[in-house]
Amino acid sequence: MSREDRIQEHEIREHEIHDMLRQFADGFVFQRRSPILHHLAEQGLDHEDITFPSSDGVPLEGWFIPAPGSDRLVIANHPLGFNRSGLPTHLEPWRSQWSATGNAFDVDLTPDYRILHEAGFNVLAYDLRNHGLSGQGNGGITTNGIHEARDVVGSLHYARSRPDTRDMAVSLFSRCMGAGATFAAMAQDPGAFADVRSLVAVQPVTPRVIVERRLAALGLEDRIDELEKLIVMRTSIGFGPRNPRQWASSVRVPTYLFQVRDDALTQPSDVQAMFDNIPATDKQLRWIEDTSARFDGYLEFQRRPKPILDWLTARTR
After folding, report:
1. Partners of 287 in the beta sheet?
2. Hey, which residues does 121 pair with through a beta bridge?
3. Angle at 210 between CA 131 and CA 110, to 5 degrees
4. Sign (positive/negative) of CA torsion 60, 61, 66, 72?
5. Nearest residue to 22 (alpha-carbon basis) of 208, 237, 228, 242
6. Looking at residue 289, what is its pLDDT?
7. 8 A C-beta contact, residue 78 and residue 152
8. Using 50, 70 and 90 to split pLDDT, how confident is the model at 161?
9. Fewest Cβ atoms nearer than 10 Å: which of 55, 58, 184, 249?
């Protein structure tokens, strides 16, 4: 191969890489909305369709599942790209996106709400901004908790505004980006959590860590800085401010955190650092073993609910 051919080949490869990074940045910043395919009727649950504003006015959609006679409420949100009902990763285009990491199976979150309801909890489950049926905020960009924190605060304001829930013992069930958003909200508006009894944090993740793992799988681990520049050009926010490890230092409510230890998309040291940074003395970290599929972590509660139910129940008596 001549020198000119090698230069041309290098230029083609660089163009391909830049195109991959551009697509990666677009997918990271602007999430494809997933449909609400599972409904509470499948679980035999009566509910109320609700809408309420985030603390900055974005309209949020959700379900309220009453448990007559109960004075306990769990407020649940969801991971990035999901919605209150889950993610149909067994269907395209999500299957192709997630199959390489072993996550191409349906994640139905509605059984979680049935289990909580049967255990005597009222449940409020909602879609974060730019997800599900909720409104668009901040131009449709996702910020891994920075702006989504306002949705967490809005859900608490809403619960306190309803005559039937305002005096209930509140716990939070926050998943992935929803957990990061909860950490961020505790840093931004700690007063909003003054009477929150407990937090179940499901697989919070530092965005840079998960992006590094995904780039490494593509053989592009040395392009992280280039990708970050593309993300900044789309959102004005780099990886540095998207920092749940730092926000964890504001988590002062009893916290139960769980994570797939061998998650192909992250590192156990990331979640361990968050847990270590939580100043609450009443806290627990549980590792899920024998799988590398991250989405198994989202199904853990419905597969083995007792430890988490015991945790919630003990802190809402």
Report:
1. 259
2. none
3. 40
4. negative
5. 228
6. 97
7. no
8. very high
9. 249
